[in-house]
Amino acid sequence: MRCSNDNRDDRLYDLVVVGASFAGLIAARAAAHRGLKVAVLDAKTEPGARVRTTGILVKEAVAECDIPSTLTRKIPGVRLYAPNHQSMDLFAPGYYFLATDTPAIMRWLAREASRAGADLLFGARFDTATLADDFVHLHGLDLKARYLLGADGAKSRVAKTFGLGRNTEFLIGMETEFEESPTVDPDFLHCFVDASLAPGYLGWVVPGVGLTQAGLAVSDGPFGMKRKPDFDSFLKRIDSHFALWNCEVKAKRSGPIPCGGLVHPLSTRRVLLTGDAAGLVSPLTAGGIRLAFQYGRRAGAAISEYLQDGGADPGALMAREYPGFGLKSWMRRAWSAAPPNALLNATLFTPPMRALAQWIYFQKRGSGECSTRALNARPAQR
Questions:
Q1: Above pLDDT 90, what percent of the chain?
Q2: 7 within a domain of the structure (yes/no)
Q3: For residue 381, how many other CB atoms are within 10 A of its CB?
Q4: What is the pLDDT of residues 89-114, one digit of tens each?
Q5: 363: which residues sit within 8 A by CB, 6+ positions away?
């Protein structure tokens, strides 16, 4: 991997991407393939460091970016648990999710961007920049760019520096990686709905690639009420199913997940936001990797067309193309109210709610099969 380019004549780039994220690396690869001189800046020491996502891919994400199968595990269904420990299994014909070795995928994406010709500058922190004479001057790094793409996460410094829109609504998530456990059915994403433990979102257990991932996230409540994840209580809640307390802990992480939809404004002259920095995360499901792949690549192409061929302004173009999340934003507000567990137990397995769950997880991918069954609260076999 080329982590710097000491032979360049100057420090001028066509495009500087801030953030070696899913969106940033895909954008850099797309722009470099089109002939732009591209640099990617990231404060991390290497691309697989400090991963803050579970890394679940929907099937459509693979169509946007062909991920090596050796870095993924196919999961065909979703098992949705009610607070009373009943569950229902959801499928759609031909559909699947992918658990991933996320650090390895980030390293693979970085190699792909480097092979396309992008310079990867790790250990380079973006602090501030100014626009002058149609060049963005990155202070403290002695770099200039004809265009700057902010792909630097939910609390983007690029957005702050240039007075662009910033994420203001977040889920707060916590996750622990355990050693791979035989108590976790590998055919399902295990999702737990429980307003007392995960108000405004849910808890999850994922049969990952060589490990088991367990986490939960919460949203802020009405009238600015702050909530915090209670991970220890969640582990006790799922103990009868998985007994993860008996597994070795490999890693822990936590952080904010934007859930307020697109930020405004998305751009200014010679500067554009993409990925989490732009709010390109589903307000309802908190999924953003497919959108990062799709619109990161599109942003890289649009910037190339603008700089090379006098194409449309990338900011105006992407403002029209980025999704609006209208219905999902309304559903986010409703779910953040955290309906009580008694109501969830009474309604979750009714036909309308089963259909809604099927739509949330599989949307237009077919009605599929749906079965409901009671789970006994018995100790998991170890």
A1: 83
A2: no
A3: 7
A4: 999 999 999 999 999 999 999 999 99
A5: none
Cis peptide before 265 (omega within 30 of 0): yes
**In CATH, what number is assigned to the domain containing residue 16?**
3.50.50.60
Q: 294 exposed, middle or buried (CB, 10 Å; 0-12, 13-18, 19+)?
A: buried
**37: in domain:** yes
pTM of the model: 0.91
Answer whether residue 4 is part of any domain. Answer: no
User: What is the CATH number for 63?
Assistant: 3.30.9
Sign of CA dihedral 73, 76, 80, 81: negative
The residue range of the domain holding 128 is 12-50+101-168+260-327
Cβ partners under 8 Å of residue 213, min gap 6 = 54, 99, 175, 176, 177, 178, 204, 205, 206
Q: How far apart are CA 358 and CA 189, in angstroms?
A: 13
- List Cβ neighbours of 314 (8 Å cut-off, separation of 6 or more): 147, 267, 272, 299, 302, 303, 306
Q: Are 1 and 111 in contact (CB under 8 A)?
A: yes
Tens of pLDDT along 2-32?
444 444 446 899 999 999 999 999 999 999 9
Position 147: which residue type?
Y
* Residue count of the chain: 382
